[in-house]
Design a protein that fits this description.
The protein is of the alpha/beta class. It has eight helices and seven strands, in the order ααββαβαβααβαββα. α6 runs parallel beside α8.
Length: about 350
């Protein structure tokens, strides 16, 4: 609405500028009246006309009317010929004026003609501006970003129905079996009778294998603590006692995999000490006497965690308490030498 008010103000300003010469008196209507008054021909009364003002220059002023000028020669032809004489109209051609409410939407009747309203003009102008701005923005985006938006129409694939199965061909009747040929003639000579096989001799009973005795100089892991002490006294060796949970303790499994099962450790242990294992499994069965012995040793030496390694003398007296040490078997052998030797 503010834009509409501004347009009306601009229109009024234009009318004032246009009407300026008429008011200023430069060849205006008032100047003509004043000039006629000075000449004594002006009629200021509304009932009479003024020559040169109310009537054209080629017509005389008689009272209130301006009679038509006289004509001479061909100028006096007032008759018409042919189509020039058609002064009537037909149908919609006769509508030269409009009435309020008869104009289409967005127009109004002004001076007998349908003209666009101020709102329609403003709306049309805004639409044109919007179209121009859209084109400018689209071109700018294409140049700056290089984006061309294309819509790809994907046609739906036609579903081809599977071919109809062909009817199965009728099975041919089975051919009749040919008669079996009779067997060949028997041999003229009868076959020799087979001789009975000789009875097999009974196998001798196997002798039970004798238990292998461990070599004198071989690595062993003892589970009987009394036997371990006896061997330690005979060889004057210390005893390495290992308290372990072989089937559930993760560090115990690492100790066995990285140290006690390696050749570097076993090569040192078989010549330098006796190895005793006190195992405390959770998922594997264990001899009751062995379990009782291990429980007593754990209480005797105050073991509270696994793996625990004790270096003791042949009588069972503790020399050093240790455990798992990372670095492999060779590193652990060095650790044991620092304790024993």
């Amino acid at each position: 609405m503010k834009k509409l008010y501004c347009a009306v103000l601009m229109l009024c300003f234009g009318l004032l500028v246009t009407a300026g010469p008429l008011i200023a008196g430069n060849g205006s209507y008032l100047d003509t009246i004043y000039q006629a008054s000075d000449e004594g021909t002006a009629n200021l009364d509304d009932s009479q006309c003024t020559p040169g003002v109310d009537c054209p220059e080629d017509q005389e002023c008689v009272g209130e009317d301006c009679p038509a000028p006289t004509c001479e020669g061909d100028d006096c032809n007032t008759t018409c010929e042919g189509d020039d004489c058609k002064t009537t109209c037909e149908g919609d051609d006769c509508k030269t004026t409009c009435e309020p409410g008869s104009c289409p939407a967005g127009q109004e009747c002004v001076d007998g003609k349908c003209r666009p309203t101020a709102e329609a003009k403003l709306k049309s102008m805004l639409e044109r501006i919007e179209n121009v701005l859209n084109r400018l923005i689209t071109r700018l985006m294409n140049k700056l970003l290089g984006i061309n938006i294309k819509i790809k129409v994907v046609e739906a694939k036609k579903v081809v129905p599977p071919p109809e199965p062909k009817p199965a061909e009728p099975e041919k009747p089975a051919e009749p079996e040919q008669p079996v040929k009779p067997p060949a003639d028997p041999p003229t000579k009868p076959a020799d009778p087979e001789q009975p096989a000789e009875p097999e001799k009974p196998a001798e009973p196997e002798k039970p294998a004798e238990p292998e005795e461990p070599a004198a100089n071989e690595y062993r892991e003892l589970t009987n603590f009394e036997e371990a002490k006896k061997l330690a006294k005979e060889k004057d060796h210390p005893i390495m006692m290992v308290f372990s949970g072989s089937d559930w303790c993760g560090w115990c499994k690492k100790f066995q995999a990285e140290i006690t099962s390696q050749p570097a450790f076993q090569s040192y242990a078989k010549d330098s000490m006796e190895t005793f294992i006190a195992d405390f499994p959770r998922y594997s069965p264990q001899d009751p006497d062995l379990e009782k012995q291990n429980q007593a040793l754990m209480q005797q030496y105050g073991v509270t965690g696994f793996p625990t390694v004790l270096i003791v003398d042949p009588d069972g007296k503790v020399i050093k308490k240790t455990g798992y040490i990372a670095g492999g078997a060779e590193n652990y052998v060095t650790h044991l030498k620092s304790i024993i030797e």
